[in-house]
């Protein structure tokens, strides 16, 4: 009997016995030559775990440097005051249109879900009116800004 904790030197009952598969080539190699019969291979140190990330980082840096220098443009002039005001007007118009669309959606849903309740119908109509006013302001914002520019420029 073995002492506790030690494993006996018996093969596993399901492992194949050498005599059962003697007609097949050795499955340890492609050539059929057992590993122990091969000539010794020269020692090669294992690759560093940082080798692949370092090569990829170096390649990415090289691509960025080459692409950056190939497409480099001369520095652009700073925008003028008219360009800045035009950009601000575009942004404000977009925000007003988005808010108006939100009110239009809320008003439409309230009107559909009112179910004949006069209070809900009135709230829905108010939201739809607010959406209409918002769209009118969004459409007229560039015109109003041009009028204000003309008044400031005339003085």
TrEMBL record:
Signal peptide: none annotated. Pfam families: T4SS_pilin. It comes from the Bacteria. The keyword Cell division does not apply. The keyword Membrane applies. It comes from Kitasatospora aureofaciens (Streptomyces aureofaciens). Residues 1-21 are annotated as: Disordered. The chain crosses the membrane at residues 50-72, 84-113, 133-152. This is TrbC/VIRB2 family protein.
